[in-house]
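Researcher: We're teaching a course module on how sequence relates to structure. For the next exercise, students receive a sequence and then see the predicted structure as tokens, so they can try to spot secondary structure elements on their own. Here is the exercise chain.
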Amino acid sequence: MSNRPWRARVAVATLTALLLSGCSGGSPRPTPTPSPAASSAGPSAPAAPPAGDPAGRAAALVATLSDEDLVGQVLMPYAYGDSATKVSAGSAAGNQALAGVDTPADMIAKYRLGGLILVGFSADDPTKGNQETTNVDNPKQVHELTTGLRAAAGRLTAGPAPLLIGTDQEYGVVTRVSDGVTVLPSALAAGAAGDTKLTEAAWRAAGTELAAMGINIDFAPVADVLATRSTVIGSRSYGADPKQAAAQVGGAVRGLQAAGVAATLKHFPGHGHSADDSHQDLPVLTQSAAALQSGAWPPFTAGMDAGAMAVMSGHLDARAIDPGTPATFSHKLLTDVLRGQLGFKGVVITDGMNMPPAKRWAPGEAAVRALNAGNDLILMTPNVGQAYDGLLAALRGGSLPRTRLVEAVTRVLTMKFQLADLPAAQMSTLNIPAHRAAADALAAAAVTVLRGACGKAVRGPVTVTSSGGRDGTRATLTAALTAAGVQVKPSGGTIVHLVGYGDGAKDLSPDAAVTVAMDTPYVLADAKSPTLLATYSSSRASMTALAAVLAGKAQPGGRSPVAVPGLPATTCRT
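Model: And here is the predicted structure for the students to work with:
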């Protein structure tokens, strides 16, 4: 999918929409606003869109939308409950506090929402700070939830354009749906493998399964270059080399969107260039504009050239460009740089507006500021009603130009219609052998030897140990080793020690013959083991690949995509 035709289509849609909204002599002619009685009566029956390309259909639909419809289409909150219409008392209370409604379906109807994000968290998740609830459990439940959400949205005036349903399915430490689906190794593992064809094939498999569950936009891939030892980005990044990371991001975008799921490049202008966590405070990027252009932006431009439909703006203070202003609210970064300099014409989505840097303003004001800066979708507002009312008041009061809102909605609807034209796979495609094979191939290519002989079998029997809380991963590796013909004992064997996300020197084992890093490999600099390996991931595929290497049945061909002090990228000749 070429990015340039996509940019052209959206540009045509935006121009058409502005003409339809009544631009004359450079000044917008206000769209008639429904009377209070009409507004309170709820949305009118959906009109059938005309035949034609997604951009034309979007422009035509925008012209029929009321103020309330327009505002709703730029909101993409989360909701409580694992069903669209039937929720627990606790979930109803959560929805009441968030939006003054009981269920996710009620929220869509009341605020005429353009989308909804499915949320969740796990123990090793660096994003869990803004995951207020969990509404994903297993594929069947997710499919039933998305079906109900889409049915509710279909009754809106904007109903001909399907609801955006998104989630953060990055794989690795940020994986929302993990049971019953094909789980890829982390982005850093793909960076270590260094094969864009493997990355594209794996992401095509993953995208097919997301689409089958009813998810049509993924907040992935992470396009941040890991220029610092950022724990919040870490193995979510494809690596420290901008050019190599760019190639991997392009492959992920092509694979994901070939399966009918919109890809989202995040977090612009580059979260990996600060070690601080935007889930806690406002990270500062001290690099010059030239350094960001050469060191942070190549993966974003590569993703755009691969056709990425969306970019996520980050809560990041790029001092060289707009000091003191989070990029989410920076017209200079989102409009002048991202759209003007880099030429992106797709949908710009905020990072979670329930994160501290965005909560310096009330939800309504924050939403208005984000739209005026150049965002098209407001993600995870901490109060849906306040954001909706604030946008509506700003639109009618003039502080949110109608042309800006129409432009944003047109982009959103264009993406929706483009996605609607792509047939989704069936649930029977989940976790099929072909998909697992794609994940296995990527994981196998990632395994890296940073110290020790290349491909030498470990002397058995083996005892698998790990840092705390990794019993499940230890069991997975034990089973994989046994299947590979390696004897595993509870104690007394050659120790293979696993460390993962958040672990440091204190989590290493001085008795281990082999230490394996299942996240960023920096901790290996402190390990004394004669053999050091990295899988960058604790997925089943990664543990199976590790077992094959330990059994001497596979050659470890990966190269560390980040520099580890005192260690080479690999001891294997490549």
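Model: If you want an answer key for the exercise: The CA atoms of residues 445 and 557 lie 6 Å apart. The first strand starts at residue 23 and ends at 24.
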